[in-house]
Amino acid sequence: MSIKVVRTKAEIEGRIIEATALVEGRDLAPWGTDSGLAIVGKGHPRVDGIARVTGRAQYTQDLYLPGMLHVRVLRSPYPRARVRRVDASRALALPGVRGVLHRFNAPKAAFRGEETIFRDEVRFVGDEVAALAADTEETAADAVRLIDVDYELLPFVADLEEAMRDDATRLTEKGNVTESGTYERGDTKRAFAEASVVVEATYRTSTQLHNSLETHGAVARWDGDLLTVWESTQHVFGVRAGLQAALKIPYSDIRVLCDYMGGGFGSKGGAGKHTIVASIFARQLGKPVRCFLTRDEENLAAGNRSATYQTVKIAAKGKRIHAIEHLSWSNSGQGRWVADPTGPTNGLYDIPHVRTRSYKVITSLGALSAFRAPGYVEGTFALDQAIDELADRIGEDPLALRRRHAARQTDPVTGMRYSLKRLLACYDIGAKEIGWQHRKPEGTRGSAPHRRRGYGMASQLWGGSGFPPAYATVHLNPDGTAVLRCGTQDIGTGTRTVLAQLVAEELGLALGDVRVELGDTNSQYAPISAGSLTVSSVGPAVRLAAKDARMQLLDAASGLLEVRPTELRVERGAIVSKGRRTQIGEVLGQIENYTVIGKGSRFPNPEDISLKTFGAHFAQVEVDVRTGEVFVEHVVAVHDIGRVINPLTAASQVEGGVIQGLGFVLTEERVVDRPTGRVLNGNLEGYKVPTIRDVPKITVRFIDDPDTKANNIGAKGLGEPPIIPLPAAVANAIANAIGVRIRTAPITRQRVLDALGLRS
Amino acid sequence: MGRVPKVSSYIGPGAVDVALKVNGDGVSVHVPPHRTLLDTLRETLGLTGAKRVCDEGMCGACTVLLDGEPVYSCMTLAVACAGHSVETVEGLSKDTKLHLIQEAFIEHDAFQCGFCTPGQIMSCVALLTRNAAPTGEDVLRAVSGNLCRCGAYPNIVAAALSAAKKQARR
Description:
The complex is a heterodimer of chains A (about 750) and B (about 170).
Chain A: E1 3-12, E2 15-24, H1 49-53, E3 69-75, E4 81-87, H2 89-92, E5 97-102, E6 121-122, E7 128-134, H3 137-144, E8 148-153, H4 160-164, E9 177-185, H5 188-194, E10 197-205, E11 217-223, E12 226-231, H6 236-247, E13 254-257, H7 273-285, E14 289-292, H8 295-301, E15 308-317, E16 320-333, H9 343-347, E17 353-362, H10 376-393, H11 398-403, E18 417-418, H12 423-434, E19 444-445, E20 451-462, E21 471-476, E22 482-485, H13 495-507, E23 514-517, H14 534-561, E24 568-571, E25 574-577, E26 580-583, H15 584-588, E27 596-601, E28 609-610, E29 613-624, E30 630-640, H16 647-667, E31 672-673, E32 678-679, E33 697-702, H17 726-738, E34 744-745, H18 749-756
Parallel strand pairs in A: 3-14, 10-34, 12-13, 16-17, 18-28, 22-23, 30-33
Antiparallel strand pairs in A: 1-2, 3-7, 4-6, 4-8, 5-7, 9-17, 10-15, 11-12, 11-14, 15-16, 19-20, 20-29, 21-22, 21-27, 24-25, 25-26, 29-30, 31-32
Chain B: E1 16-22, E2 25-31, H1 37-44, E3 63-66, E4 69-72, E5 85-87, H2 100-107, H3 117-130, H4 136-143, H5 153-169
Parallel strand pairs in B: 1-5
Antiparallel strand pairs in B: 1-2, 3-4, 3-5
């Protein structure tokens, strides 16, 4: 097949990137609505279900290699300090301790723009000071406490709004605040002057902790020059790149594996310091080494969703939104980037005059990492509440107001037409399912005299188009079974199942005859499992690989059956020719042990079109006005993501997004003690993730129209969309119920009581 | 959660032999007195179904059955299990046939990343063993100590109720 270089622009996590990639052969025509698909579009249970329910699924945490050593990390108890001296002699004297690494003895290892993984100046409580390897984890945990460190304490700032002040401690020479995003269209200055109504408000969101159930961790082993690393990761190739940069060894000497992994939600994007520590110890000590974070460490040093401080000024002219200005500051901790909460304001609604700015604020706290729709959850919380506030002021139904700004089929940011946008259909379905007609501007009486009921909704905009590069190979065995090999990961979204469906459909096999092998850098490249891009990036390449295998199979069958290839097709594991069915195994069995290998690559997206996903969430809540307790009774989630490959797993994704969104808006808040910079609830006791008792009735609906302009499978991403609009929808419902707006997430009982003026 | 047996006599400080039943088989392990049942199952016996998530009795991912009652194995010392019977997720499908609740979890897609799943399943097994016809409220109570960060909760309830119905028909 001929190889071609392609360049493509694509969106990941709200940012536009340019990629150059190679593609092979020609792309396939997309499956349309009339393609008569038998396996794609059906709700198949997960192909790895048995492994997961029997405890046989092997996660990185479950790997115990013979002779393996265990690492524990000593972390800074201070938010900012110079490490003047490290004395590990007491620790090394403990039986079973095999080695200690710290800034004075560790080899150089480049990590995220720094030359070493142990800083001279530690910058947050939880920053890595030293690492210790021992025969057992218990010994390592005991011994790490015996490392003596002499710190010189330095001034710090451990709060977003404090760090924003002019008189705040400056953590860098340039100060704490830098501009990270700017956008304008129209003329907001003139527009606000000519508007009939202007509403201004400030919104705050708290730091949300991922709390993936499997913490960050790796196991490293050297066999001569070959380093094998098992890592709980969303991107095996990203881990490989990180190890190459840190250890200065070639790709051929690195293999990264991730079979099953226990959640990432954006935080497991590449090699971590734990990966590099495990690899260095494993080389120095000549044994496999395991380094897993404890729950507390996970919540200090493995990333978080930035807290935000946002101001929105929004204006109406008549019954339309005329202008909006959205300014946002995000607490990036010690992060080197920041997500942009103003993305939805720029692109979601057709508003003529828009001005947005976003700022990155560094603080003496752990770095942010991507967390399921970074920026968009926080930004939509402000934007869609501001729209409701404006609707209230002009006496308009908030859904009716949004409709006027949601119909346009052109992307307001790029001016390009959308490939497919069914946002109004999402509104129609959502309004019907929640019973929007019951909403009254002043709320309604709830199920008891002290309970008020309210309805709210919000919209979702996200990318999720996917893009190259992504590759896959399909290996068709002589017995008619197939193995898909692909460098992507299944982080719990159901990737294995969806990819098996695509292979089975295109190749004409039963689903059970397809095995999927993922998470191995010895496969061809696949992108990070993030940004809602796995199905839309990898899926089209997988379909092409299956098609390539099918064409080769038909060529082989043509020779063996002496029928022209055009008169043959593959159907449910058999070659069909003029009404005669021959099992694939019977055909290929005539040749000695030949494996058909089909290859596929992801072709670029069309250049002149905007590929987005849309959706809307509707919420019905009750609020107990005596206690401030919020009862979410019903959530309707409607999403427009192109073709739904597997409605069963897709619905699970949406329910999960809704539930994580409920945590964000009602209970989840990292609490930091400002005088000491310490996180007070870095555990699952004090940090409240939703339990089964917090789950409302959830109705999930999909538009399920294939986006035939997007790619050859017509599917876009779904991982992130279902968390984006939920917090704003619930906040709007609460404001409708009690007639007072709470602009800070999470909306705890205390904040409800404060808003009602009831707190004693 | 079930009762945790008391350690009857003084032991330690060194490792001691502990005889217990795991998934029906008698086993003897040599463990220090502070070693948890969870670490013993995972590291000594190679049963890695039960997961270590919080390691302090907050999440339920390490749930196993001790004499038929669900316990957090991270909060249970191995020495306290001497003479007792432990059942883990690996024991549910010994003869390759899945337990009803395992089948129901697959059918109802009651997991995403699957890390909490062994714990959820053991809590449901305990429920179905002591309550032939659980209500939705019974299910909520049974798994209220098992966190799921992916949010598979609605499907977990559906799976447990469906398994209960199938069990009643047998």
